[in-house]
Amino acid sequence: MENIPLVLIISSLVKILIIVHLLLIGVMIMIWAERRVSGWMQDRLGPNRVGPQGLLQPVADGLKFLFKEDLIPDHVDKPLYVMAPAMLLVPALVAVAVVPFGSSITVLGHEIPLQIADVNIGILYILAITSLGVYGVVLGAWASNNKYSLLGGLRSSAQMISYELTLGLGIIGILMLTGNTLSLRTIAIEQGAYPWQWNFLIHFPAFLAFTTAMFAETNRLPFDLAEAEQELVAGYHTEYSSMKFAMFFMAEYMNMIVGSAVTVTLFLGGWHFFGLENMGGPVWSGIISFGIFFVKTAIFLFVFIWVRWTLPRFRYDQLMNFGWKFLLPVALTSIVVTGTLWITTNSRLIVGIGNVVSAFIVASIVAGLLVMRTPKPAIQDSDNRLTPTALDAIE
Amino acid sequence: MNAEQILFILFGAVSLIGAIAVISFRHPIYSALSLIVTFFAQAGLFVLLGAHFVAAVQVIVYAGAIMVLFLFVIMLLNLGTLSVQGAIGRKLKGLAIILGILFAAEGIYIAVNALNDTAVASAESGAAAVTITTYDIGELLFSKYLLPFEVTSLILLAALIGVIVLVKREGQEEN
To answer: Which pLDDT tens digits describe chain A residue by residue (395 residues)?
Structure first.
């Protein structure tokens, strides 16, 4: 360990600085984009006063948060109350370390991969770190000593544990077809330059399940039951004010950015785009590949905002049914079908077709079972007579 | 002292402090959090041994899933500060002292044996160079340890079915 080359240390420090700042600036841009895009979707303007197109609005918001009184209510469990926002923010920041955001740049004869750390358990690292985010929510909720906060926190932890399973199972299909490593860089490299070689076509059902589970993990609509305003005031961050409140939101946006970057790496070909990433010299190709990755992530982030402003929130039982009875069977089938077809035919095309067909069959079966098992509304039976349940309700 | 030794001492110290904190805190939530800290430090120790996969699984399974359920239960039952008092408390204290002495004796025995054993010392110097990848573990699981692996999965399946049966029975009576 003593003879680590100086180049590695310096390049790593530079990369860490750039990526952390990109994340923080990305959060600001996301807040602006969310408000402007929602305005656009609802046929109104959104914030457009501060700076050109309202671009400096997040700066104004940030300053406002900083100057607000940092109130700590008397009834809270103080150490945990103060720690909780940080416990949510830190995993979001740390998870980005293994995401490969470009091919590589050659500087002064040294090839520098555009990734902070290429560990051979990359995807497990992401799963491990993101699974820790739930502590921030749960502890913040509990420490607030407020029943609405606690309800929000409990909902959120149950939801995160449920959807984590789908998140993990959705990846296994990819891992079976990718070499013998869990490194995100290898997964990105092994997908070819053209969109039809990318993983999202081969593992289409897994892709949908993974993306949906990620929406749930980031607590975004339609899965934001942890902060359902109509039921829980503001959920787990009801008692928070000033910068602590802002930290909860920064963590949410950071999770979105990291989640999008991971999805792009796993399913959407990473930094590949029609061979464009190989243009130019050893320096330019790296920068172009980074640009491609950036654009893909940005498009995916737009989808995040798009979904939030078009879909209504799930009811809690719908959320659990959807996660356990629908997404999980689809993800499990995808694993079995991918494994069987890959071993018997060794063709990515057949695996892709088999995945879609089997997912369709499983989805129909599950949907049929759910419809059959759902009890009919108990208020009135077929003869329009009141049933005992309905009478109970009237009393 | 090289970087690895410094990291070992750091992770070891954190894991020990966490473990002591688990039994020192009066409030179950703080105890659970200290246990998470211990799990993390142990994951760090696994990384130092080159067992990256075990480290990741340690964090995913213990810190990420099991401890969340612990917290969940503590919050749902709304457990307050625990105290060891009264007649049952005194009995528990006696049991704790006996168990503590037993564990301490075991620990000392293992430590003394390890210091005297030259095989452990020689293995230690070579261990750090080997990095066990997920590929190696998968290959071992599906060849040499196939039977234990399948038996374990059967046991887990039995547990799963047991839970479903227990939950279902109450639901059926209602209908």
So the answer is: 445 677 778 888 888 888 888 888 888 888 888 888 888 888 888 788 887 887 888 888 888 888 888 788 887 888 888 888 888 888 888 888 888 887 777 777 777 777 887 777 888 888 888 888 888 888 888 888 778 888 888 888 788 888 888 888 888 888 888 877 788 888 888 887 787 778 888 888 888 889 988 888 887 777 777 676 666 767 777 778 778 888 888 888 888 898 899 988 888 887 888 777 777 777 778 888 888 888 889 998 998 888 888 888 887 778 888 888 888 888 888 888 888 888 888 887 888 888 888 888 888 888 888 777 766 555 555 555 555 554 454 44
Q: Which pTM value belongs to this model? A: 0.82
Nearest-CA distance A17 → chain B (Å): 23
ipTM above 0.90, yes or no: no
Domain extents in chain B: 1-82, 83-132, 145-175
Cα distance between residue A211 and residue A195, in whole Å: 18
> Cβ contacts (< 8 Å) between B72 and chain A: which residues?
138, 154, 157-158
In this structure, whether the domain defined by B1-82 belongs to CATH 1.20.120.1200 is answered with yes
Distance, C-alpha B122 to centroid of its chain: 27
Measure B59 CA to nearest chain A CA, in Å: 6
What letter represents residue B57's amino acid? V
Give the burial class of A203: count Cβ atoms within 10 A of its Cβ; 0-12 exposed, 13-18 middle, 19 or more buried.
Answer: buried
Give residues with Cβ within 8 angstroms of B89, minimum separation 6. B83
